[in-house]
Amino acid sequence: MNKQDSVDLLHPSMLQIQYLMELEKVGKKRGSVTMIADICGVSHGPVSRFFKECMERGYLTEKYEFTAEGTHALLIYKKLLRDVKLYLKAMNIPEKEIPEKMRQLIENVDYDLLRNMIRNGRQTAEHIEKQDKSQEYARDSQHSREPNAYFIEKILEKGKFQVGIAVHQMSRNSETRISMAHQGFEHLALIRNNTRGSWLELTIREVNGRSRIDGTRMWGHISSLKYEKQGQLYEAVIKDGHLRIPLSACHFFRGRMGNVKGTVHITVACNIGNAHMPESTAVLTFWM
Fold it and tell me: What segment(s) does the record annotate as region Disordered (predicted)?
């Protein structure tokens, strides 16, 4: 983080950031809170309460004017929104999924960590370009094992790296959509690369749904995950709510903007309520 960004920031929701952006447009005028509430599709109360919190933090005056701290904070929020959107586009996330993924990242991830993710993505792309390995990488990608070795040995440094993940259903007509299994994992994962090995580490989270029989709300969790490696299925060990997939089972490729993405075919099963859901096959994608 730059020294100029070292503001004591609130961590507002996407909607609350929109309140501030609309206030910047509307300006100080009679009925501005009601006007902003109408634009954002909410009642007067949530906007008024959030602006009061901004006053307590020193972002706004009692007349709904931005202070220097508030102006600077809004600049940071707008830059973060822009950078996250560009980051997701660079990861080739479908356009219709970007708003929800932006909301998840902006609202649930620490800002410093989010900046590091974006910066790591840029640095990875720049590193690949500097290496000028596009022809070699394309040739290697024809063989299942070589691109993995290239990625791990030539690009990935030792340590742990935050990555975004998504789980998509496989379909015969090549259309993709988010799998139910996507709900079963935290949408940020870790790549761990050290002398003991290299893994993609996923964190399991609670899945919820409703019974098709009586509409009862039920909760559950991923009970098993198998990953495909050279045509064979291997079961990942689940321990303390985490599981690991070796990077040697993953296939890596470079996006149009130089970013690195990885995929692995998985088969997952889930327990919800007293029911054990049948195994489903999906593609797990992760990106830096």
Answer: 124-144
